[in-house]
Amino acid sequence: xxxxxxxxxxxxxxxxxxxxxxxxxxxxxxxxxxxxxxxxxxxxxxxxxxxxxxxxxxxxxxxxxxxxxxxxxxxxxxxxxxxxxxxxxxxxxxxxxxxxxxxxxxxxxxxxxxxxxxxxxxxxxxxxxxxxxxxxxxxxxxxxxxxxxxxxxxxxxxxxxxxxxxxxxxxxxxxxxxxxxxxxxxxxxxxxxxxxxxxxxxxxxxxxxxxxxxxxxxxxxxxxxxxxxxxxxxxxxxxxxxxxxxxxxxxxxxxxxxxxxxxxxxxxxxxxxxxxxxxxxxxxxxxxxxxxxxxxxxxxxxxxxxxxxxxxxxxxxxxxxxxxxxxxxxxxxxxxxxxxxxxxxxxxxxxxxxxxxxxxxxxxxxxxxxxxxxxxxxxxxxxxxxxxxxxxxxxxxxxxxxxxxxxxxxxxxxxxxxxxxxxxxxxxxxxxxxxxxxxxxxxxxxxxxxxxxxxxxxxxxxxxxxxxxxxxxxxxxxxx
Amino acid sequence: xxxxxxxxxxxxxxxxxxxxxxxxxxxxxxxxxxxxxxxxxxxxxxxxxxxxxxxxxxxxxxxxxxxxxxxxxxxxxxxxxxxxxxxxxxxxxxxxxxxxxxxxxxxxxxxxxxxxxxxxxxxxxxxxxxxxxxxxxxxxxxxxxxxxxxxxxxxxxxxxxxxxxxxxxxxxxxxxxxxxxxxxxxxxxxxx
Lengths: 480, 192
What we know:
The structure holds two protein chains of two kinds.
Chain A: H1 23-32, H2 34-57, H3 61-77, H4 79-92, E1 96-100, H5 103-116, E2 121-124, H6 128-132, H7 135-141, E3 145-148, H8 151-158, H9 175-185, H10 195-212, E4 215-218, E5 222-224, E6 229-234, H11 238-244, E7 248-254, E8 258-259, H12 262-276, E9 284-288, E10 296-302, H13 306-310, H14 326-330, H15 332-337, H16 348-358, H17 375-379, H18 386-399, H19 405-419, H20 421-437, H21 440-443, H22 450-453, H23 464-479
Parallel strand pairs in A: 1-10, 2-3, 2-4, 4-7, 5-8, 7-10
Antiparallel strand pairs in A: 5-6, 6-9
Helix pairs in contact in A: 3-12, 9-10, 16-18
Chain B: H1 3-14, H2 35-45, E1 49-50, H3 60-66, E2 72-74, E3 99-103, E4 106-108, E5 113-117, H4 118-121, E6 132-137, E7 142-143, H5 146-150, E8 160-164, E9 169-170, E10 178-179, E11 186-191
Parallel strand pairs in B: 1-11, 2-3, 3-6, 4-7, 6-11
Antiparallel strand pairs in B: 4-5, 5-8, 9-10
Domain LUD (chain B): 94-189
Organism (chain B): Commensalibacter oyaizuii
InterPro entries (chain B): FTHF_cligase-like_sf (IPR024185), LUD_dom (IPR003741), NagB/RpiA_transferase-like (IPR037171)
């Protein structure tokens, strides 16, 4: 195997406008970069193991998951009331609250706020909603310089790549990959791939931007209706720096992030980082309830498809997601194919159920990037029925005529085969006999996508049906 | 129709449920024995440390730690510094501070967190821009877990507060843990 630090980083899925993303093609390239693939798998599995260790330390873990799920279900049922309560309380604290129907409106609201303050530079802490709305690209077109302050997100920004994971955006990169990016963009020492050095380069080069920025932006992990507060969880302290250093703080947050009361916040904070990174809590759990002295605070509440999903009983539970990434860390497909192979903002199991909701045609292949093993559902801290929804998407896609040609042909043929017991039995017998004698190249070729990653199981000497027919059906006849 | 009304109407059409109350959350108390010890263990796990009490002068070890620092910014009367905060101090100007010394509102044993509010910090960036922090904490103000923490009155009184659990950290490159990401490089707690 090639040395990890010598291997070139595999790039993500090729995006061709609205054409369906070929996740399989990108995944195959990631798997071919065997050292990267192995590191990625080990790194994420390590997070999964840390999560398990934390779970076993909390006797009430399952009770907390039940509570979290119930709180989210309840909140989604009364979402409008809680959003109004949040707005009332936040406004009373001096926060400006804005509402955005979609990504475009959200971007425009943020552009307008920045223009009113003549703000030309924005320091930003990572927010998946920002990625969802392509906010950075929008602001850059407006002439605003946007600097990501989270280390992983900054690496991805400088490398012109999207985050590959909701919590660890550059998890698919090695230290050498990062060193190369920093050498090109931050004037870092050539060939110095010491992780401490690289993190220090980022700290030192980002700090001046934070100190001189006109505005700061954060996402929000939770909104508390009772107090009108935005809660943000980070490890690097970048959200607190982005929000507290410049005079203007803008929060962009999805409407589903709201919870009723402070007592509920405790449940989610106890679950979030334990599920995400296997740590008891993030280094900073920050609470913004109003602007600071001489400062200004804006909260943009973004819908962007959420209220439509709310009306769909099958896919509504996806709105409970708290973006911990536990489903990705446990998913065998995600761990082996890399987050960028999905070609969508949200990757892994949660991405499979969210992405087709944004663009069914473009992301129609994603619900098939799963083994349906249910591991994602087992670790989800808010008990989203992920694997059931992945399956439901497959049904929906079939109904909407969104299956690829090859899937349609296979499904149709198999459907006919399964519908006729006689044809099925003949096919099985012929197939089994043929497999025994066919040369290797005829079984393992491009037409057999199953055989690309696996061995075809050896065939039994006899099917159950023929064995039954031989031993019992004759006997039954004799007995009659 | 405004976007606000459009969104709220759409949500109300999607949700037609009988009114219910949100679930109430128990406190999950186990034992308040050795709560200070538990806090210390959790804090150390998160990368923070505890400064011991001196024999003659309780602040002896705090002062030793500060001895070689050039710019010290304390917002507590117990410690003397050389960078007083005034009404003209800007948030960004605290970037040259080596040590901030702040009193925390309370601590959380479960996670080793300390709560710093805008009233403790005076200028919020004091919690992040200095290279190091020393936190004074009254050990009787340590609560057992996060349920207790969020039942505290501070959350309804301040505009800003944060639970700090050790210094800033990142593991974004190959999972290698680094203390001192964007915020402070070290955080030490002193019980007084």
